[in-house]
Amino acid sequence: MSSELRLRIISGVILALLVLTATWAGGIWFRALAVLIMVLIHYEFSTMVDAPVKAPLANAIGWLAILATALFIFVLLPSMALAAIVIGAAGAAFAGLKRGAGLWSATAIVYAGLSGLALAEIRGEGLFGLFAMLFVFAIVWATDILAYFCGRALGGPKLAPRISPGKTWSGAIFGAAAGVAAGIGVAMAVRQGGGWMIPLVALTLAVASEAGDLFESWVKRRFGAKDSSHLIPGHGGVMDRVDGLVFAAFAAFLIGNLLPLADRAGVADELAARLLGL
């Protein structure tokens, strides 16, 4: 085992333990984690696209929007958090229009802001949120791990050579299969069974996770960056570590909002009720 791979595994295990601890605790602890991820993603994204230099006003608006979103996440006002993201993105796009960097600043706000909001809403406040979040985590982590190792071991045709030359179709297929298996495993552990929606949604989240990985790779290639930052040993930056989780969380957040229940209490309860039969 190479020293780089060993470092990657060790830091990955430590991060997973910290994330799972916050997920188990829930409440203010997980909201703090979601906000921390959001803030670091916005910092890395805006730095990578050089927003502070190319669009300083748009970047300032972006930080105000992210701080407002963080506040609304902490006080459990998701609709206001979403409004802050939308208004901030629109303001940043307009403010940076003349320099041509406004759209990237707006993208940073949406990408980071929705990441924090989606994660906080999926976890929610109760036990159902814990199950829903573990369901998402299991799919994303299984997809990422199997895609990485199977892609390296099997090789074969490239998935998107112009975006990420290291990714292969074999890795993508085995990763998605692992994500589906992990989602079914969590569902069976929670409810001792599983409906037809579980593998379908698990596949959707696995594909979304792989799409998120490709999106981040495209942004880095577009701006000539190898890593989003150097905050995490062996992994690069926070964006490098949560790229798949971000898109999977987006997808789960949409599913939780598109399948309303008559007595719905939130996205977390919705996901648990529809996907895990609770």
Report on the structure:
- It is a single chain.
- The chain is mostly helical.
- Helices cover about 75% and strands about 5% of the residues.
- It has a two-stranded antiparallel sheet with strand order 1-2.
- Strand 1 and strand 2 (about 165-170) form a beta hairpin.
- It is globular.
- The termini are far apart.
- The mean pLDDT is about 85.
Please, how many helices?
A: 11
Strand order of the largest sheet: 1-2
Q: What is the 3D shape?
A: globular
Structural class: mainly alpha
Instruction: Count the domains.
Output: 2
Largest sheet: 2 strands, antiparallel
Uncertain segments are none
Q: Helix fraction?
A: over 70%
Give the oligomeric state.
single chain
Distance between the termini: 43 Å
Rg is 18 Å
Transmembrane segments: 12-41, 61-94, 101-120, 126-150, 171-190
Pathway: Lipid metabolism; Phospholipid metabolism; CDP-diacylglycerol biosynthesis; CDP-diacylglycerol from sn-glycerol 3-phosphate: step 3/3
Subcellular location: Cell membrane
Pfam families: CTP_transf_1 (PF01148)
